[in-house]
């Protein structure tokens, strides 16, 4: 049985015939509804039914290098899709209502949820991914259960790469969520594609234990973000002032993005 890195811990039997896969090397998708003209694979062919020697049309990576991008036939994927759709809808509404004409907004970007997946953590399980908006990029965790927190309250969560400080907020469609600021403002990004590539890098580097510092960095995060994280909750609800500081130290950001930011 073929295993897939990052896909349900390699359990291919959890991938439905409708699963849309994505190459982790170049992000080329394989959509069963479209097939693959380059290899004469007919539309309607599930990813698991592809020949063993099939490779990525974009970079020739083997099947084992593909991740699940979305799976309409999987109940868990459908739930995550609904959550990210609500998250994007909330922040798209904020953009059009309050942010679109501010000078800090990067008009080359739009709101997009990237890499959201199930996050099984004893301390706080939920759905984890990166939210891109024209004025920020945040690591976002949507918890499984409502949290007894007030907007603006902070919570430190631990990942293989270290401890990260999140701020709590809630939205009408999304419900409760926690956000860790990565970039704000977004003026250094020249395209949506560049922002998406960095978001993918964040999700990859976040889960690598070799990125953990020799000492706990939660104090560093708190020191550098003191006061600023509270502003993030306000920034998302109200227009921000023209100058918004980067909320994570460049060295920390470089660690997470693999130097792509």
From TrEMBL:
Gene3D superfamilies the UniProt entry points to: 2.20.28.10, [NiFe]-hydrogenase assembly chaperone, HybE
Superkingdom as given in the UniProt entry: Bacteria
CDD domains: rubredoxin
Key word Electron transport present: yes
Cofactor: Fe(3+)
Residue ranges annotated for the Rubredoxin-like domain, each copy included: 18-69
Residue span of region Disordered: 210-261
Pfam families per record: NiFe-hyd_HybE (PF11939), Rubredoxin (PF00301)
Keyword set, alphabetical order: Electron transport, Iron, Metal-binding, Transport
Gene Ontology biological process terms, A to Z: alkane catabolic process
GO MF: electron transfer activity; iron ion binding
Skewed-composition ranges (Basic and acidic residues): 210-225
Annotated protein name in UniProt: [NiFe]-hydrogenase assembly chaperone HybE
Lineage, highest ranks first: Bacteria, Pseudomonadati, Pseudomonadota, Alphaproteobacteria, Rhodobacterales
